[in-house]
Amino acid sequence: xxxxxxxxxxxxxxxxxxxxxxxxxxxxxxxxxxxxxxxxxxxxxxxxxxxxxxxxxxxxxxxxxxxxxxxxxxxxxxxxxxxxxxxxxxxxxxxxxxxxxxxxxxxxxxxxxxxxxxxxxxxxxxxxxxxxxxxxxxxxxxxxxxxxxxxxxxxxxxxxxxxxxxxxxxxxxxxxxxxxxxxxxxxxxxxxxxxxxxxxxxxxxxxxxxxxxxxxxxxxxxxxxxxxxxxxxxxxxxxxxxxxxxxxxxxxxxxxxxxxxxxxxxxxxxxxxxxxxxxxxxxxxx
Length: 286
What we know:
Layout: H1 4-11, H2 23-57, H3 62-75, H4 77-81, H5 84-111, H6 123-148, H7 158-182, H8 195-224, H9 230-285
Helix pairs in contact: 2-3, 2-5, 2-9, 5-6, 6-7, 7-8, 8-9
Organism: Arthrobotrys conoides
Protein name: Sequence orphan
């Protein structure tokens, strides 16, 4: 495999390319890359998401919840990977990566003269990935709140939905749109990583210090209702802010850092193979 530096250099290179070349095969590579990345990162995210919800509700301590989830994964992996919690998390990230990948493919297809390995950072990608991620994450969060919150299952209040939407918009912005821009000012080959790979890890991790209060406030509104004053809300959020931020960094680095890098690299290598095959066909055809 190529080094990260070589990967980044080739990734930015533009080549003339036939507009309609193997579009279905390219979409298949988009989907395969997304599923590989999602399944790889979902176990860690699943454990952390569950622990944050249980800790915010006062049901269990964060570390205790993570410990039990690890034991479950090690002792009963078949039930862990077939569980509803794992399925919900894998669904969120597979869906988000698929939309990000296919957006790049269709934009490349429309331009007609770009390398099919190119990644974009425009409005279309943000709109597609954010709307998909918000919808799927709301489904996941609604189920997690009901499964691991306190008291009887109840409807998710609209303010909680709004806060979760704002949280997810920030996450998507810092996971898919900020990294290509940030990579331009970062040095290459930091710890063996390209500037793009480094940005894909740093940007979503740093975002959690902004998005975690939105997440905690949404959970508090669900768990304790809407009648409490702002002072009580602030105390609840501030009490859990630091450990929840660190926990969310631990989940976002796999989700959109490591997962984003894995998805990008899998897609790049699959697309490069398709591109080389098409080039060979072009040469053979004269």
